[in-house]
Amino acid sequence: MASRDSCIRALAKKLGKKYRVTVIDFEHVVYRDFGNGYNVEISGMYTTSKKKKATLYLWDGETIGARVVKNVSDVAQDDIGKEVEILYEYSKSLIEKGNNNKEENE
Prior knowledge:
Layout: H1 4-15, E1 19-24, E2 27-33, E3 39-43, E4 54-59, E5 68-75, H2 80-96
Antiparallel strand pairs: 1-2, 2-3, 3-4, 4-5
């Protein structure tokens, strides 16, 4: 049986080179920095279960004071990449609207 470590690394690899495994709030997560002041955390995937669903968090920064501006719950593993791209487009729209990474959670 595959370990949780190998499963989360396989997910990050499947999603692409822009993704990496890291620890946030004591949880192993998949992470992607959008390069525009926003980043996404893919939580709930430190598991061997193929049925477990993810929660995605769109963050406005990486340092102390960063906060979640949007989250998406119950994302099937096969839909994570698509949902992350939707969050990426959302982050770009926040910047275009002049929200400067400080949009409240919706």
